Amino acid sequence: MLDTARRYELEQEIARFLFREAWLLDEWRLHEWVALFTDEARYRMPVRELVQGSDTGVPADGEFAVRIFDDDKAFLEMRARRLDTGLAHAEQPRSRTRHLITNVWLDDSSTVDQVVAHSNFIVYQANRDRAEDFYVGRREDRLRKIDGEWKIARRTIVLDQTVLPRTLTLLF
Length: 172
Fold this sequence. Notes:
The protein is an alpha+beta fold. The protein contains three helices and six strands, in the order ααββαββββ.
């Protein structure tokens, strides 16, 4: 269990890490972004299920039967390489994005070397040929310190909206 002062310092450190990660995506520095993940990382976005009697759409056990994506680091690397080629038609011309990360807080299970960080986000995406899109939701990140650097071991993204555009690239 972290004492109050160390918890506050660690929350600030994690928030800075997440803000830098968002900057890397906005600057289209995708390979540096992928390097922030552990080798065994999972990056997933479940389908939000609207169930009678539940306003969260999240099953009680936190697991999701259906995912929009459930990628590992190798797949993230492949997606970044594909976007480098200019052959990803959904990103020609490349989208402009702005990631806003807020309300970062750490789960009580967090330690100085492993944290569960919760945050909210808004992602703005604009492309010259398409309408502008906003994505709003929350994330749960499991981060691990490896060789003195924070790495993302698992990310789960839950969008607030249930209707999505046809194409999602590396937005979150």
